[in-house]
Structure formats: C-alpha cells, structure tokens
Amino acid sequence: MAINIQNAFVATPPIDGGVYFNAPVGTPLPKTATEALNPAFVDHGAVGEDGFNNTPTRETSIEKMFGGDDWVDLQTSYTETVTITLLEDDNEHVLKSCFGDANVIEKAATDKHGRQRTIYHTAERLPLKSHIVKAVSGEKAKTLVVPNGRISTVEKTAETHSASTKYNITITAFKGPQEYKYANVFELRDDGMVDPNTPDPDAQDKTVTLPSGVTGGTFTLSVDGNATAELAFNATAETVQAELRKLTGATTATVTGNAGGPYTIKDVTGALTADGTKLTGGAGTTITVNP
C-alpha cells in the first residue's frame, strides 16, 4: 500500500480557538464537522498544549475449554473517556463545569468592588451533559461528540508563581441515543476537499412563504439555530440571499422569488427555519418552510 501524507492529521485549535464545549443533554447535536454549534454549547476557552485525548478501551477475558486450550474471547467491558486541560481559571463556564452550576455564585462589579464569585467545593456529583471537542488540520476538521457524558474527575493544579492554575478533567462517555447507534462517542470529519461539480444531496430546495396579507414588520431565517439579521416583510430575494450567505451552512445559498416571497432557497445544508413573530397586518405570523 502506498504511503499518502495527505492522510495525516496534525491537530490544532480551530481558527476561532473554540476546542471544548458542553450543553444540557437534549441540545441538538451537530451533523457535520464544520457547522456552527447550537448556541447552548458554551465555549470553555483555551486548553492545554496537549490538546485532548479520546480513549476507547475494551477489556476481554478468555474462556477455556476442557484440556486447557482457549475456547472463546469474551468482551467484558467497553469504556470511553475524553481528557483535556482547561487553562482559563477565571472562565465562568470552566468553573461551572468543574464545580457545578449551582455552586458558582457571582455578584456584579460595583463602585466598591470588582466582580465577586463564591465557589462551593462540594461532593455533589456533576451532571450529565453533551460534550464536544474540536480540532483542525489545515483544511481538515474533526469533531468528537459525546451525547451523554459526565465530568468524572477534576484535578486542579497547584496555585504557584511558576505556572498558571489549570483544571485537568476527564469526561466519561455513556451510551448515546438510538439515532447515533447508541454510541458513547461519535466522530465527525471533513477533509476540506470541496468538489464544485457535485451537488450536495442534503441541500434540498426550500420554499419559504410568509403569511398572507402581511403589510409590515420583519422576519428572520435561521440555519441550525443561527439567525440572519432582521429582514423586512417585503425583502427582495437578493437581500435574503445576502443575509443567508453570512451563515454557516448557507454560504453558497441562492434565493429566487418576488419581493415578500415566496422565496425558493437552494444549497442550504443545515436545518432552515423561520421566525415571523415580528410580522404585522397579516393573517398570522407563522412562516412556512417546505419541504
């Protein structure tokens, strides 16, 4: 087999620096390595130079047969963990992840004191959350998703003049939901090699229709939960297209149709939704997106 250096992956942080995120279990999970995460996933800032380590571990035992020879190997356990070092000791999300949301109490700064925090170190078990770690290698992207995981160990490093205070954490991954094949962890990759001649089969054409009789107000479109700026009720297709293209998952979107719609939208790879609650004068505020 020929050696191919293009198959190498040398992990570095994504361009925005976001490496480790978590959110409550049930938050929509990403479907691709490059899409924007649901806003509920909070960024924990800088991580240690060793990046992160994902360790799947299988343990087996050998059953013997009469005579002493091996009969069959039995898998006795499967565990999977992710380890990472969090560097930002004063990051709100780091503190809440390491000690529990309810155990970090904050008071805003006043003219008498700066922002104050009280952090309670308790034996209470940390909650199950969904966890995500991300890395890139040039144009390649890699995202590991833990649908159901718990921070099971937290090691706080020494308070010393020779190094910053850090938190070495271990995330223990548990079995995920059926839609992810009950996986403890699933991994999303994108090699970054775009083929402009091959349409994306997931990018279905969408028709966006505003409610009848609308005479004013604004609406927004969202891709995977990330919204456009407010769009006028009578926005042209060109205006809608320009705003959509600012969103991850819609950077090559095309929009056709009359001012005020209906709009035909192509080449959006994420989930397209619409919010018409600020529309006025019509039969309602519900915008339909089909299919």
- Describe the sheet with the most strands: 8 strands, antiparallel
Rg, Cα atoms, Å: 24 Å
Percent of residues in beta strands:
35-45%
Shape: globular
- Overall structural domain count: 2
Pattern of helices and strands? EEEEHEEEEEEEEEEHEEEEE
Number of helices: 2
CA-CA gap between termini:
45 Å
The residue ranges in which pLDDT falls below 50 over 5 or more consecutive positions are none
Average predicted confidence as pLDDT: 95
The strand count comes to 19
What class would the helix/strand composition place it in?
Answer: mainly beta
Percent of residues in helices: under 10%
Compact summary:
The chain is 5% helix and 42% strand. The protein is mainly beta.
How do the strands and helices of this protein lay out in sequence?
Elements: E1 20-24, E2 42-43, E3 47-64, E4 70-86, H1 92-99, E5 104-107, E6 116-119, E7 128-137, E8 140-156, E9 167-174, E10 186-190, E11 206-209, E12 216-223, E13 226-227, E14 231-232, H2 237-244, E15 254-257, E16 263-266, E17 272-275, E18 279-280, E19 288-290
Antiparallel strand pairs: 1-2, 1-7, 3-4, 4-9, 5-6, 7-8, 8-9, 8-10, 11-16, 11-19, 12-13, 12-14, 12-17, 12-18, 15-16
